[in-house]
Amino acid sequence: MREEVILKVENVSKQYRLGTIGTGTISHDLNRFFAKIRGKEDPFLKVGESNDRATKGSSEYVWALKDINFEVKRGEVLGIIGKNGAGKSTLLKILSKVTGPTTGAIKSRGRIASLLEVGTGFHPEMTGKENIFLNGAILGMTKKEIASKLDEIVSFSGCERYIDTPVKRYSSGMKVRLAFAVAAFLEPDILVVDEVLAVGDAEFQKKAIGKMQDISNSDGRTVLFVSHNMGAVKSLCKTGLVLENGKITFTGTSEEAVNYYITSERKKSISSLILRNDRIGNGKFKFVDIKFKNKAGVEANEFISGDKALVEIDYEKDEDFDGSRIIWSLIFRDNLKQIATSFVSDEIPNQAEIRKSTGKIKLEIPNLYLRSERYEIMLLSFNGETKMEEALDIIEDVTFINVLKADVFKVGKLNREGFSSIMPARYYQ
């Protein structure tokens, strides 16, 4: 029996006009009106550029979403990933009917509950309990149905002491806790969750992800989940899609989608190492290029903590220089330029002597046990001894990699960020 499709998105596009006034001008409105009465297409749907926020365009119209097509089956958990500005939140607002599409259609079956921004749908002057009943009514539930779930909602949110206090006095974390509890326990057919969960603490994030898994597995309900936490997307979602500049660039399993996203985001900090003139050493041996590859062997600059990483370093050396004594080192430095970890060739098995004038050094890191942070890569090489007088080639800022959080030891908790992001610089001096 074919699985039931509960949500279908057909050719959905969303256009916005840039500038201080987003509703258009009288001339634009007249052009649209005359086109409509003549039975013609809106002329401004033919213009507009893709939504690349990092570049300056020539059109005042942008497509936040363009020709989006996908379907979700009942009980499926779909992860939606992409950079900031890719169109994720716009898509969820259209799915939640907060705003309408410029073109296309959304077909859904059943109630949709959304958690898009902190405090969305809450009236600040009403108490937490009153807002629970308000949200339930918006979802189409009766007062009796809401009352039957009230104790569970309050208990899950952890806000029992403040449940009779106006929501305007809640912290952002408390609002998220209560909003998620309402959305999850009032039994929507489709639960839409944006990155807002990141506001909550680690304990609540764990509870929320567990609840979403229960909603999907036990209750057969559908979840759409947007997050920049790739570990959470892989563990929670069955399928995934990647958005880039308002367009879907990939759909597949959640692991395939995460790997595609990480790979496509690779950016090298320099075009070619051979052109760098800020290096130290006698130049008899030089690093030419470096590539990081993920466990699938695909070039990438983002890795999940604990995953395998493959490193390939291209080199060249003088023909008459004996490379048998070369010692090379790969160093990871954190945001404060402190060494997080390093790999030295004479401490690594199966590293062949460098004999040829050009070649490739390969290093396999079985588990990249680094905390979530951006790491700058540094390369060093010496002739026999690791002393400055024996330096062949030392070069900083070769490239960088981003390491993402993960539950490395399977304890139900994501590891913390790198300590350079939370500790003052004086602790490193």
Written account of the structure:
- The protein is α/β, with parallel strands linked by helices.
- The protein is built from eight helices and 18 strands.
- The protein has helices spanning 26-37, 88-95, 128-138, 143-157, 172-185, 202-217, 230-236, 254-264; strands at 5-17, 49-50, 61-73, 77-81, 103-108, 112-115, 190-193, 222-226, 239-244, 247-253, 285-293, 302-304, 309-317, 326-333, 339-344, 358-365, 373-383, 391-404.
- The strands form four sheets. Strands 6-7-8-4-9-10 form a six-stranded mixed sheet, sandwiched between helices.
- Strand 9 (239-244) and strand 10 (247-253) form a beta hairpin.
- Mean pLDDT is 82; it is low at 266-271 and 423-429.
Overall pLDDT score? 82
Shape: elongated
How many alpha or pi helices? 8
Q: End-to-end distance, in Å?
A: 65 Å
Strand line-up across the major sheet = 6-7-8-4-9-10
CA-based gyration radius: 27 Å
Q: How much of the polypeptide forms β-strand, as a percent range?
A: 25-35%
Q: Indicate the percent of residues in helices.
A: 10-25%
Low-confidence spans: 266-271, 423-429
Structure classification = alpha/beta
Following the backbone from N to C, one meets helices and strands in this order, namely EHEEEHEEHHHEHEHEEHEEEEEEEE
Short description:
The chain is α/β, with parallel strands linked by helices and 429 residues long. Helix content is 22%, strand content 31%.
Please name the defining characteristics of this protein:
single chain; 429 residues; alpha/beta; six-stranded mixed β-sheet; five-stranded mixed β-sheet; disordered C terminus
